[in-house]
Protein backbone atom coordinates (compact mmCIF):
# COMPACT_ATOMS: atom_id res chain seq x y z
CA UNK A 1 0.00 0.00 0.00
CA UNK A 2 1.27 3.48 -0.86
CA UNK A 3 2.29 5.70 2.03
CA UNK A 4 1.25 9.32 2.46
CA UNK A 5 3.82 12.06 2.88
CA UNK A 6 3.92 13.29 6.49
CA UNK A 7 6.22 15.85 8.10
CA UNK A 8 6.25 16.62 11.83
CA UNK A 9 7.88 19.65 13.47
CA UNK A 10 7.50 21.83 16.55
CA UNK A 11 8.10 21.65 20.27
CA UNK A 12 4.58 22.03 21.63
CA UNK A 13 2.93 19.40 23.83
CA UNK A 14 -0.28 19.25 21.74
CA UNK A 15 -0.54 17.60 18.33
CA UNK A 16 -2.01 19.68 15.49
CA UNK A 17 -2.74 18.07 12.10
CA UNK A 18 -3.10 20.42 9.10
CA UNK A 19 -5.04 19.31 5.99
CA UNK A 20 -4.74 21.32 2.76
CA UNK A 21 -7.37 22.00 0.12
CA UNK A 22 -8.13 20.85 -3.44
CA UNK A 23 -5.29 21.01 -5.96
CA UNK A 24 -2.65 21.96 -3.39
CA UNK A 25 -0.30 20.26 -0.92
CA UNK A 26 1.12 20.72 2.58
CA UNK A 27 3.53 23.45 1.43
CA UNK A 28 0.57 25.85 1.57
CA UNK A 29 1.05 26.01 5.37
CA UNK A 30 4.67 27.25 5.21
CA UNK A 31 3.64 30.87 5.78
CA UNK A 32 2.26 30.09 9.25
CA UNK A 33 4.40 27.09 10.17
CA UNK A 34 7.08 29.00 12.15
CA UNK A 35 4.46 30.48 14.48
CA UNK A 36 2.31 27.36 14.89
CA UNK A 37 5.31 25.09 15.42
CA UNK A 38 6.33 27.27 18.38
CA UNK A 39 3.02 26.39 20.05
CA UNK A 40 2.21 22.87 18.79
CA UNK A 41 3.71 19.65 17.48
CA UNK A 42 2.54 20.22 13.90
CA UNK A 43 1.84 17.38 11.47
CA UNK A 44 1.73 18.24 7.77
CA UNK A 45 0.32 15.74 5.29
CA UNK A 46 -0.12 15.70 1.53
CA UNK A 47 -3.57 14.23 0.91
CA UNK A 48 -3.69 11.06 -1.25
CA UNK A 49 -2.73 11.87 -4.85
CA UNK A 50 -1.52 15.39 -4.03
CA UNK A 51 2.06 16.69 -3.73
CA UNK A 52 4.40 13.97 -2.49
CA UNK A 53 1.61 11.45 -1.81
CA UNK A 54 1.59 9.92 -5.29
CA UNK A 55 0.26 6.58 -6.52
CA UNK A 56 -3.40 7.14 -5.66
CA UNK A 57 -6.39 7.49 -7.96
CA UNK A 58 -9.72 9.20 -7.40
CA UNK A 59 -11.02 8.52 -3.87
CA UNK A 60 -14.26 9.03 -2.00
CA UNK A 61 -14.25 11.21 1.11
CA UNK A 62 -14.37 8.12 3.37
CA UNK A 63 -11.47 6.47 1.54
CA UNK A 64 -9.38 9.61 1.87
CA UNK A 65 -10.16 9.89 5.59
CA UNK A 66 -9.27 6.23 6.19
CA UNK A 67 -5.87 6.68 4.53
CA UNK A 68 -5.08 9.87 6.45
CA UNK A 69 -6.05 8.53 9.89
CA UNK A 70 -3.85 5.45 9.39
CA UNK A 71 -0.63 7.46 9.84
CA UNK A 72 -1.99 10.21 12.08
CA UNK A 73 -1.09 10.80 15.77
CA UNK A 74 -3.23 8.95 18.30
CA UNK A 75 -5.13 12.08 19.34
CA UNK A 76 -4.82 15.54 17.89
CA UNK A 77 -6.41 18.86 17.10
CA UNK A 78 -7.41 18.65 13.43
CA UNK A 79 -7.41 21.77 11.26
CA UNK A 80 -8.69 21.44 7.69
CA UNK A 81 -8.88 24.09 5.01
CA UNK A 82 -11.51 24.01 2.25
CA UNK A 83 -11.73 20.37 1.01
CA UNK A 84 -9.36 19.49 3.87
CA UNK A 85 -12.07 20.75 6.22
CA UNK A 86 -14.43 18.12 4.82
CA UNK A 87 -11.78 15.42 5.38
CA UNK A 88 -11.13 16.63 8.94
CA UNK A 89 -14.89 16.75 9.64
CA UNK A 90 -15.38 13.23 8.28
CA UNK A 91 -12.53 11.98 10.48
CA UNK A 92 -14.08 13.70 13.51
CA UNK A 93 -17.43 12.04 12.74
CA UNK A 94 -16.03 8.55 12.11
CA UNK A 95 -13.02 8.53 14.48
CA UNK A 96 -14.10 10.87 17.32
CA UNK A 97 -11.72 9.23 19.79
CA UNK A 98 -8.80 10.46 17.65
CA UNK A 99 -9.91 14.12 17.55
CA UNK A 100 -9.60 16.35 20.63
CA UNK A 101 -10.84 19.45 18.78
CA UNK A 102 -11.80 20.36 15.21
CA UNK A 103 -11.03 23.57 13.30
CA UNK A 104 -12.39 24.13 9.79
CA UNK A 105 -11.12 27.00 7.64
CA UNK A 106 -13.06 28.40 4.68
CA UNK A 107 -14.89 25.11 4.60
CA UNK A 108 -18.48 23.95 4.52
CA UNK A 109 -20.24 20.68 5.32
CA UNK A 110 -21.91 21.16 1.92
CA UNK A 111 -19.93 23.09 -0.71
CA UNK A 112 -22.62 22.96 -3.41
CA UNK A 113 -25.48 25.44 -3.33
CA UNK A 114 -28.76 23.77 -2.37
CA UNK A 115 -32.22 25.14 -1.62
CA UNK A 116 -31.81 27.52 1.32
CA UNK A 117 -28.07 26.82 1.46
CA UNK A 118 -25.39 29.10 -0.05
CA UNK A 119 -22.46 27.58 -1.90
CA UNK A 120 -20.85 26.98 -5.28
CA UNK A 121 -23.28 26.46 -8.14
CA UNK A 122 -23.26 22.86 -9.32
CA UNK A 123 -22.66 23.95 -12.92
CA UNK A 124 -19.50 25.81 -11.85
CA UNK A 125 -17.96 22.66 -10.36
CA UNK A 126 -19.13 20.60 -13.33
CA UNK A 127 -17.55 23.20 -15.61
CA UNK A 128 -14.21 22.88 -13.82
CA UNK A 129 -14.39 19.10 -14.24
CA UNK A 130 -14.99 19.49 -17.96
CA UNK A 131 -12.14 22.01 -18.32
CA UNK A 132 -9.70 19.75 -16.45
CA UNK A 133 -9.69 17.29 -19.32
CA UNK A 134 -8.83 20.09 -21.79
CA UNK A 135 -6.20 22.13 -19.91
CA UNK A 136 -5.89 20.99 -16.33
CA UNK A 137 -2.95 23.24 -15.36
CA UNK A 138 -4.79 26.39 -16.45
CA UNK A 139 -7.99 25.16 -14.77
CA UNK A 140 -6.17 24.68 -11.44
CA UNK A 141 -4.66 28.17 -11.77
CA UNK A 142 -8.12 29.66 -12.39
CA UNK A 143 -9.51 27.89 -9.31
CA UNK A 144 -6.61 29.22 -7.21
CA UNK A 145 -7.21 32.76 -8.48
CA UNK A 146 -10.86 32.48 -7.36
CA UNK A 147 -9.66 31.75 -3.83
CA UNK A 148 -7.93 35.13 -3.41
CA UNK A 149 -10.38 37.32 -5.35
CA UNK A 150 -11.26 40.60 -3.62
CA UNK A 151 -8.40 40.82 -1.12
CA UNK A 152 -5.96 43.72 -1.12
CA UNK A 153 -3.12 41.26 -1.73
CA UNK A 154 -5.04 39.09 -4.23
CA UNK A 155 -2.34 38.94 -6.91
CA UNK A 156 0.42 38.18 -4.42
CA UNK A 157 -1.70 35.58 -2.59
CA UNK A 158 -2.61 33.83 -5.86
CA UNK A 159 1.09 33.69 -6.75
CA UNK A 160 1.86 32.06 -3.39
CA UNK A 161 -0.79 29.39 -3.98
CA UNK A 162 0.42 28.81 -7.54
CA UNK A 163 4.02 28.43 -6.33
CA UNK A 164 2.84 25.84 -3.78
CA UNK A 165 1.38 23.75 -6.62
CA UNK A 166 4.45 24.11 -8.81
CA UNK A 167 6.94 23.11 -6.09
CA UNK A 168 5.58 19.56 -6.14
CA UNK A 169 4.32 17.07 -8.70
CA UNK A 170 0.94 18.10 -10.06
CA UNK A 171 -2.02 15.88 -9.10
CA UNK A 172 -3.43 13.79 -11.95
CA UNK A 173 -6.65 14.75 -13.70
CA UNK A 174 -8.24 11.66 -12.11
CA UNK A 175 -7.31 12.79 -8.59
CA UNK A 176 -8.45 16.37 -9.23
CA UNK A 177 -11.77 15.16 -10.65
CA UNK A 178 -12.23 12.93 -7.61
CA UNK A 179 -11.70 15.96 -5.36
CA UNK A 180 -14.25 18.00 -7.29
CA UNK A 181 -16.69 15.09 -6.97
CA UNK A 182 -16.26 15.28 -3.18
CA UNK A 183 -16.92 19.04 -3.22
CA UNK A 184 -19.92 18.59 -5.53
CA UNK A 185 -21.68 15.68 -3.80
CA UNK A 186 -20.80 15.52 -0.08
CA UNK A 187 -23.32 16.89 2.42
CA UNK A 188 -22.41 16.52 6.11
CA UNK A 189 -24.81 19.14 7.43
CA UNK A 190 -26.96 16.77 9.50
CA UNK A 191 -24.06 14.70 10.83
CA UNK A 192 -22.01 17.74 11.86
CA UNK A 193 -24.73 18.75 14.32
CA UNK A 194 -23.89 15.62 16.34
CA UNK A 195 -20.17 16.27 16.82
CA UNK A 196 -19.11 16.03 20.44
CA UNK A 197 -15.69 17.73 20.42
CA UNK A 198 -15.06 21.52 20.46
CA UNK A 199 -15.45 23.04 16.99
CA UNK A 200 -14.09 26.32 15.62
CA UNK A 201 -15.09 27.53 12.15
CA UNK A 202 -13.01 30.26 10.48
CA UNK A 203 -14.29 32.13 7.43
CA UNK A 204 -13.12 34.90 5.10
CA UNK A 205 -15.48 37.85 4.75
CA UNK A 206 -14.80 38.10 1.00
CA UNK A 207 -14.82 34.35 0.28
CA UNK A 208 -16.58 33.63 -3.01
CA UNK A 209 -16.44 29.84 -2.63
CA UNK A 210 -17.76 29.46 0.93
CA UNK A 211 -20.06 32.47 1.50
CA UNK A 212 -20.00 33.97 4.99
CA UNK A 213 -23.76 33.24 5.21
CA UNK A 214 -22.70 29.64 5.91
CA UNK A 215 -21.26 30.85 9.24
CA UNK A 216 -24.62 32.23 10.39
CA UNK A 217 -26.55 29.13 9.31
CA UNK A 218 -24.16 26.83 11.21
CA UNK A 219 -24.23 29.15 14.23
CA UNK A 220 -27.94 28.27 14.45
CA UNK A 221 -27.59 24.51 13.95
CA UNK A 222 -24.34 24.18 15.97
CA UNK A 223 -24.81 26.70 18.81
CA UNK A 224 -22.03 25.06 20.85
CA UNK A 225 -19.46 25.67 18.12
CA UNK A 226 -17.72 29.00 17.54
CA UNK A 227 -17.29 30.92 14.31
CA UNK A 228 -14.88 33.72 13.40
CA UNK A 229 -15.07 35.76 10.19
CA UNK A 230 -11.75 37.39 9.25
CA UNK A 231 -12.41 40.75 7.63
CA UNK A 232 -10.78 41.62 4.28
CA UNK A 233 -9.79 37.99 3.70
CA UNK A 234 -11.12 35.59 1.07
CA UNK A 235 -10.78 31.80 0.81
CA UNK A 236 -7.21 31.58 2.17
CA UNK A 237 -7.14 33.76 5.33
CA UNK A 238 -3.93 32.13 6.62
CA UNK A 239 -2.16 33.36 3.45
CA UNK A 240 -3.57 36.90 3.35
CA UNK A 241 -3.77 37.48 7.14
CA UNK A 242 -1.33 34.99 8.76
CA UNK A 243 -0.82 36.79 12.08
CA UNK A 244 -4.54 37.34 12.67
CA UNK A 245 -5.31 33.77 11.64
CA UNK A 246 -2.75 32.27 14.05
CA UNK A 247 -3.98 34.50 16.86
CA UNK A 248 -7.53 33.22 16.37
CA UNK A 249 -6.37 29.59 16.41
CA UNK A 250 -4.07 29.94 19.43
CA UNK A 251 -6.62 31.89 21.50
CA UNK A 252 -9.38 29.39 20.79
CA UNK A 253 -7.25 26.32 21.51
CA UNK A 254 -6.23 27.76 24.89
CA UNK A 255 -9.90 27.98 25.86
CA UNK A 256 -11.11 24.78 24.18
UniProtKB/TrEMBL annotation:
Amino-acid positions noted as binding substrate in the UniProt annotation, renumbered to this chain: 22, 82-83, 143-147, 235
Pathway per the UniProt entry: Cofactor biosynthesis; biotin biosynthesis
Top EC category: hydrolase
Active site as annotated: 82 (nucleophile), 207, 235
Location (main, coarse): cytoplasm
Domain AB hydrolase-1: 16-242
EC nos: 3.1.1.85
InterPro entries: AB_hydrolase_1, AB_hydrolase_fold, BioH, Carboxylesterase_BioH
GO molecular function: pimelyl-[acyl-carrier protein] methyl ester esterase activity
GO CC list: cytoplasm
Cellular compartment(s): Cytoplasm
Protein role: The physiological role of BioH is to remove the methyl group introduced by BioC when the pimeloyl moiety is complete. It allows to synthesize pimeloyl-ACP via the fatty acid synthetic pathway through the hydrolysis of the ester bonds of pimeloyl-ACP esters.
Known partners and oligomeric status: Monomer.
Family: Belongs to the AB hydrolase superfamily. Carboxylesterase BioH family.
Protein name listed in UniProt: Pimeloyl-[acyl-carrier protein] methyl ester esterase
Species assigned in the record: Hafnia paralvei
Gene, per the UniProt record: bioH
Amino acid sequence: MNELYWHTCGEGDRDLVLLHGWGLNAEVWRCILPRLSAQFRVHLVDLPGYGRSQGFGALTLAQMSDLVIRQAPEKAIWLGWSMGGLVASDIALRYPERVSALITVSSSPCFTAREGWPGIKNEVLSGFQHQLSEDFKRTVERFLALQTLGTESARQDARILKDVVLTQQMPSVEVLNGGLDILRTEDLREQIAGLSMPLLRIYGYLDGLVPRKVAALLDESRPKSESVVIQKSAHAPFVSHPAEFCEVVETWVRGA
